[in-house]
Amino acid sequence: MINKDVRQELLDQYPILLFDLACNHEKNLTILHMNSYFYELLGIDKDSFPLDGILAFQTLLYPDDFQRFTAIIENAIQDGLSHFETEIRWICSDSSILWTRIRGNIESCRERFRIHCCGENISVQKEMEKEAFLSEERFRIALTTTSIVIFDYDPRTKIYQSLIEADILLGLPRNMENVPESIVKMGIIHPDSVEEFYRVFQKISDGALFSSAIIRANRIGMDIWIRLSLTNILDHDGKSIRIIGFESDITREMNAKLAFIRENQYRSALLSNALAAYEINFSKNRILKMEGDWLARFQGQVFEKYSDAVNLIAETVIHSDDRKQYLKTYGWQSVVDAVHHGSTEIKLEHRRLNAANEMIWALSELYLFTDQTQNEVLGFFFVMDIHQQKTRELALKRKAEHDSLTGLLNKEHTERLLQNFLSDQSSDEKHGLMVIDLDNFKSVNDTFGHQKGDMVLAELGRLLYETFRSTDIIGRVGGDEFVVFLKNVTSMTKTVDLARNLCSLVTSQFNTFDQNFSISSSVGISEFPEDGKTYEELFRKADIALYEAKRHGKNCVFRYDPSMAGCNFPPNGILSEK
């Protein structure tokens, strides 16, 4: 028989955890013995650690596990069991956790029970389980937060199983049978992609190591593009043990590709009709390519900087009246600012010289996009000839806005221009409005006919157009009634002088024009903002002043005065000839 000391020495050398516990009738546990390996794992000094007492054992166990371990032993004793097995955690001297799997034997000794326990260190296993769990969680979270779906597919049973709760791309349930047919029947796959969808699954079912395709699908009424890939996982003998499928959302990539194709087609169509075309790197302020009349006009001169080229074009090709707006629209800094504000297209109609040095109407179109690979802003610039179209458009516009007889602005357009202009004026500005009426014009029509009357009106229109500034607004607002709006006048005295000079010009002009009749004019004047801030107010008061001029013998000028408001002005505002 091995004596007790030799036995203890042998047990201390075993790389297993050995300890004995005592359990009294109050179910209190105390440590009777621990082997050296156990002390070593816990990092405890064998000579200084007290074994006696309940507290000694309790301090070694993880709090939650102490209560659970005590309950396991109590239940085993109560049920008359002699063996038990469990996993518990111990607190090491450095506060780390030691996981152990414990097997115990319960022995009854007089008034108490003795429990012989042996255990193995399973900390590494638990750490691996924890890492596996965390990896699985990370994988699950990654799948739910990205546009990638991973699934298992069994070609024998045709069962599909997503590795997350549901297929977030196609809106499929987690488990499906009879795939791919059941998915097609759901109407999710676009008709153009059904054949390709079947092919992917058939190819992998036939034993291919890999099968892939780009599939067009429909999700909640919205077109999407999916890259579908199936991979065969083989064992050491080359037999298929599993098929893994991947779905990734490539809608953005495909839309960009399709847009690029459409853009190239559109660009080719534009180039066939363009006067000029340029490719520009706005991030580097460089022209990459030039086509069209540039080469002929500048004899192949190449500019490295876009800013130099656009300034030269503005100076030598663009109409002088459009030059400022052209540079404001297409200057290098203007385009850069427009890009920062989200612009992708910049268009401008303007006049420019063509290859034959004829001034024509053109449409410049700049299309901007970002090269994702270089993170640079690029642009395609096209210049189109729209001269015929623009000429017809301007002719129709002029016809709609001008009086056909005199060539001046018609009543509607005159009122619209003045209303818009006055709505944006401050009280510090000073403008004048003249209302002009021909005296005795009715007698001209009655005596000489309307043809002669039309000649008089046309001649007055020419006279008004040549007398006043190009910035003034001149319009015919009635049969023989005209208005002249003088912008930014320095004084109303000068406005009155201009009106008197006009009356003299009319009298002398028409005496020369035809000595068979005498024609004169009367003028009423109102002032902005003193007499009103709207066209309606200014016209009404200028018309009142005109009535005063008529009452005082005609062929004269009256400026509105508030005292005129009480005069015998016709209630309908219409002056009748006498």
UniProtKB/TrEMBL annotation:
Q: Give the domain of life.
A: Bacteria
**Domain PAC stretches:** 208-262
Alphabetical list of SUPFAM superfamilies matching this protein? Nucleotide cyclase, PYP-like sensor domain (PAS domain)
The GGDEF domain sits at: 429-562
Q: What is this protein called?
A: Protein containing diguanylate cyclase (GGDEF) domain
Biological source species = Flexilinea flocculi
